[in-house]
Design a protein that fits this description.
Layout: E1 11-22, E2 33-43, H1 59-70, H2 78-90, E3 95-104, E4 114-121
Antiparallel strand pairs: 1-2, 2-3, 3-4
Helix pairs in contact: 1-2
Region (Disordered): 107-126
Protein name: Dihydroneopterin aldolase/epimerase domain-containing protein
InterPro entries: GTP-CH-I_C/QueF
């Protein structure tokens, strides 16, 4: 693993913006389009890494995880979705840190959007 001055691992950022999927929320008869924005800090594979998807983190893996999460039934709300999305991201060994923002539109078109935002990081290796 390459490190920066000071010993921190060399990383890069993956942005997943505007992912939306219908979610079966507890207590709602509609299936609102829930929006997700994610910022992932990922371990860099180093200079001269092969042109091989296995060498880097693919955002498609994260999108597939989000699709499965959104397919769950009776989802309690935005906090749950943000928490589970963060867990799913950190289950990938290359992900060092993740910020998740979730937005759920109101049941009526004029109401406020509910949401949650959280940041989690993998414990430092030492």
């Amino acid at each position: 693993m390459l490190v920066q001055p000071g010993g921190a691992p060399l990383t890069y950022t993956i942005l997943v913006r505007g992912f939306a999927a219908a979610v079966a929320l507890a207590g709602r008869t509609d299936r609102p389009e829930v929006g997700f924005d994610l910022t992932l800090t990922v371990t860099h594979p180093g200079p001269g890494f092969p042109d091989d998807i296995a060498a880097v983190m693919s955002y498609e893996d994260i999108v597939e995880d989000l699709r499965r999460l959104c397919g769950e039934s009776n989802v309690p709300g935005a906090d749950y979705l943000a928490d589970r999305a963060a867990d799913l991201c950190l289950s990938h060994a290359k992900v060092r840190r993740v910020q998740v923002d979730v937005a759920i539109p109101a049941a009526d078109s004029g109401g406020p959007t509910a949401g949650a935002s959280l940041t989690r990081a993998r414990p430092a290796q030492g």
